[in-house]
């Protein structure tokens, strides 16, 4: 008897790609139905600003719509569709959920456990994409790429950016601090080595690899990293401990003229404090790809600062990210159907 699998994708995580990989991994003895949501052409609900659905974060779709689509399916593969406690109570046949994200923020995990629903995710799906983007973000700020671009588009030739007192510094002469040494942070370390910079890592929960230790990477406390680094890049998860932990006290410890890069999550930063640090000149600049509220308001003060580069949460967006996520999800589906233990249980 074929197993029923519901796939809820979108215009980034294409449901057709997931269906193709699941059929390749599991054969044709699966009954697959797909739903394509309109993200990113339409914004998702962003629970960090106050969730409207049982405390879930970053989701898209109305409960009734999602429940009707899932129906009697035993397996669900999703990117953004929410699964709350009240929804699970209306989905008695659902036994497995694969979330094509690094964290199941759109799933009520306690409710899933209570209903004996196995949840798996796809950790590291966008690690390569975000790490590469982070290097580009660092260079855009430290080498004045953004400043020169904006001026030239406005008809101004910024010859003064060649002045010794204004021009940028090379990474090889700087110290870069990486906060968070998971799949992304550790990959940023690997990429940075080619530039010859001094690398510091702050993460109290993991140890450096033997290779990184041998290559001179230092594992230090967060306070020491903040005071020594010329560039600080965030790669931590949002927890009660890390929410707004880059606030006034932390920013005051940054070196004069240091740069902040955030390609992780918006709630890590106190944006009022960051605005003051940038406007006062204490920080040389910042590059932000994620925000506490998305999309950002049109009148957001940081949009008006000249020493900030902003992008619309695209660090993890690459074609390869979709393929990696689909491969991981398909393997988890295969393992569940075969009665094998999952690789990435949540």
TrEMBL record:
Q: Which InterPro entries match?
A: D-iso_2-hydroxyacid_DH_PdxB, D-isomer_2_OHA_DH_cat_dom, D-isomer_DH_CS, D-isomer_DH_NAD-bd, NAD(P)-bd_dom_sf
Family to which the UniProt record says this protein belongs: Belongs to the D-isomer specific 2-hydroxyacid dehydrogenase family.
Is NAD included in the keywords of this UniProt record?
yes
Please report the name of this protein according to its UniProt entry. Answer: Oxidoreductase
Q: Which UniProt keywords apply?
A: NAD, Oxidoreductase
Tell me what organism the protein belongs to: Bradyrhizobium uaiense
D-isomer specific 2-hydroxyacid dehydrogenase NAD-binding domain location: 136-315
PANTHER family (UniProt xref): D-ISOMER SPECIFIC 2-HYDROXYACID DEHYDROGENASE CATALYTIC DOMAIN-CONTAINING PROTEIN-RELATED, D-ISOMER SPECIFIC 2-HYDROXYACID DEHYDROGENASE FAMILY PROTEIN (AFU_ORTHOLOGUE AFUA_1G13630)
Per the record, the domain of life is Bacteria
Task: Output the Gene Ontology terms for molecular function.
Answer: NAD binding; oxidoreductase activity, acting on the CH-OH group of donors, NAD or NADP as acceptor
Alphabetical list of CDD domains matching this protein: 2-Hacid_dh_10 (cd12171)
Domain (D-isomer specific 2-hydroxyacid dehydrogenase catalytic) spans 63-345
């Amino acid at each position: 008897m074929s197993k029923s699998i519901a796939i809820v994708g979108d215009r980034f995580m294409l449901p057709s790609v997931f269906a193709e990989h699941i059929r390749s991994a599991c054969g044709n003895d699966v009954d697959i139905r797909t739903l394509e949501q309109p993200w990113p052409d339409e914004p998702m609900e962003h629970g960090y600003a106050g969730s409207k659905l049982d405390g879930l974060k970053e989701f898209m779709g109305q409960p009734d719509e999602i429940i009707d689509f899932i129906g009697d399916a035993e397996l669900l593969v999703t990117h953004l569709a929410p699964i709350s406690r009240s929804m699970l109570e209306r989905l008695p046949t659902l036994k497995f959920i694969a979330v094509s994200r690094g964290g199941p923020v759109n799933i009520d995990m306690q409710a899933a456990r209570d209903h004996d629903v196995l949840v798996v995710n796809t950790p590291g799906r966008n690690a390569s994409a975000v790490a590469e983007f982070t290097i580009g973000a660092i260079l855009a700020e430290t080498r004045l790429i953004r400043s020169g671009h904006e001026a030239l588009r406005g008809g101004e030739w910024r010859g003064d950016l060649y002045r010794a007192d204004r021009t940028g510094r090379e990474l090889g002469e700087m110290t870069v601090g990486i906060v968070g040494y998971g799949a992304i942070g550790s990959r940023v370390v690997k990429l940075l080595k080619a530039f010859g910079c001094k690398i510091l890592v702050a993460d109290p929960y993991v140890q450096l690899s033997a290779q990184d230790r041998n290559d001179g990477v230092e594992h230090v406390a967060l306070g020491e990293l903040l005071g020594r680094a010329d560039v600080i890049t965030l790669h931590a998860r949002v927890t009660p401990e890390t929410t707004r932990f880059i606030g006034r006290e932390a920013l005051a410890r940054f070196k004069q003229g240091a740069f902040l890069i955030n390609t992780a999550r918006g709630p890590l930063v106190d944006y009022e404090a960051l605005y003051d640090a940038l406007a006062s000149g204490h920080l040389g600049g910042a590059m932000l790809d994620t925000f506490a509220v998305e999309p950002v308001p049109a009148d957001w003060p940081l949009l008006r600062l000249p020493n900030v580069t902003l992008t619309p949460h695209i660090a993890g967006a690459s074609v390869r990210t979709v393929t990696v996520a689909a491969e991981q999800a398909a393997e988890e589906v295969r393992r569940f159907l075969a009665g094998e233990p999952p690789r990435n249980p949540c």
